[in-house]
Amino acid sequence: MKFDPAREIQEFLTFGEFGDVNASICDSSTYTFLSVARMEEVFEHEIEGCFLYSRHWNPTNKALAGALARMEGGESAQVMASGMAAITTTLMQLCSAGDEIVSSRTIYGGTYALLANLLPRFGIRTRFVDISDHAAVAAAIGPNTKVVYCESMSNPLLEVADIPKLAALAHAAGAKLVVDNTFSPLILSPLRLGADVVVHSLTKFINGTSDCVAGCVVSSAAFINALGDINAGPSMLFGPVLDSIRAASILKNLHSLPVRMSKHSANATYLASRFAERGLRVHNPGLPAHPHHALLESMMNPGFGHGGVVTMDARDKKTAGRLMQRMQEEKVGYLAVSLGYFKTLFSAPSHSTSSEIPVEDREKMGMGDGLIRFSVGLDSDMAQTWATIARVLDEVGL
Ligand code: PLP
């Protein structure tokens, strides 16, 4: 049977302590044992259903991790306090001093800063490449490369990574392919396309209510166990634990993700088509004219569309600023960073989420000063929303 990530979520049943339909919130940092011998046993190796200390594992976090592992078609998962924690712990597990990472140059600004500025302090160097130029990726991979890193759909330009091809290039060199799937949950299943590790910022579409920051790593059971190893595991020792109250609320929101994702995608592609008809420069992989439309269609799971993000070039910083200000006044959505909220969010990546990337690199990527990223909301009548946006576009001369 074909893999259906929505069915995987649907069939993931958790029972709370009293047969509750939602996972119980385990509100404890530590757990009691009936005997000293049992405590020693649990300290030495993980025993199903036994818990020791919540930085290691918490039953509520385990329920969320189990659902996310199934959604991604992975063996196991670990949930974390942020998307950055998921990325950082993954890279610290895979790389040591002297190792190299080959990374897409179009990635979230925080990840770029981690790779460009912080990891070199620990002797880990990154070569940034155009991830759709496979010859450049192959040329950048060297004997010390341990990781090829990319976003399934890049932030903010929405380039789609050819995951099977990148996995083949990484594996030929003995490296791992790590994919940040934050922009395309359900739409793409990178592990099933050859990736070794998937990371998410749960803060975005997966949670969908912009009320918390969280992340996850999905991979083999061996990799997840290594992350949490009590002697040397980065998630155990850096300690970015997700609070169990948050894990319980994210798990509830996860169950509406399939419905939300298809609506976000339909609204985004509708908006992108209207921008394109108006002659504006627009990026959205749902448009047949997008250079990676066919590639995305060859890899994606059906039923969730092409993603909820649209990037539009408003020509210059000043026009972009006026447009965003007026859209907020006209209640199109909020001038705010982040993604996946039920209302539309818009921001200028060059001056916010991608400002960590040097100007020359932003220019090479085609990320101009007037670019606006829209995380398109769940509006029930997108034609009505478009009528408002079109009026504001007229006002600012676009
Ligand atoms: N990955 C992507 C693609 C993102 O857009 C972000 C945040 O904007 C992150 C990772 C970092 O996630 P968090 O803010 O949850 O740490």
Which regions contain 5 or more consecutive residues with pLDDT less than 50?
Answer: none
Computed CA radius of gyration, to the nearest angstrom: 21 Å
Q: Kindly report the CATH topology of the largest domain.
A: Aspartate Aminotransferase, domain 2
CATH architecture of the largest domain: 3-Layer(aba) Sandwich
**Global shape:** globular
H/I helix tally: 15
- The helix-and-strand class reads alpha/beta
CATH class of the largest domain, named: Alpha Beta
Mean pLDDT: 95
Span between termini: 48 Å
What does this structure look like?
- This protein is 39% helix and 14% strand.
- The longest helix has 21 residues, at 257-277.
- It has helices at residues 5-10, 36-44, 59-72, 83-94, 109-118, 134-140, 163-172, 221-227, 234-238, 244-254, 257-277, 293-299, 317-329, 359-365, 382-396; strands spanning 76-80, 100-104, 125-129, 145-151, 176-180, 197-201, 215-219, 282-283, 309-313, 333-335, 344-347, 371-375.
- The mean pLDDT is 95.
- With 398 residues, it is an alpha/beta fold.
- The radius of gyration is 21 Å and the shape is globular.
- A 7-stranded mixed β-sheet has the order 1-7-6-5-4-2-3, with helices on both faces. Strands 8-9-12-11-10 form a 5-stranded mixed β-sheet, covered by helices on one side.
- It binds pyridoxal-5'-phosphate.
- Pyridoxal-5'-phosphate is lined by residues 82-84, 108, 110-111, 151, 155, 180, 182, 201, 203, 213, 215, 353.
- Pyridoxal-5'-phosphate (PLP) binds at residues 82-84, 108, 110-111, 151, 155, 180, 182, 201, 203, 213, 215, 353.
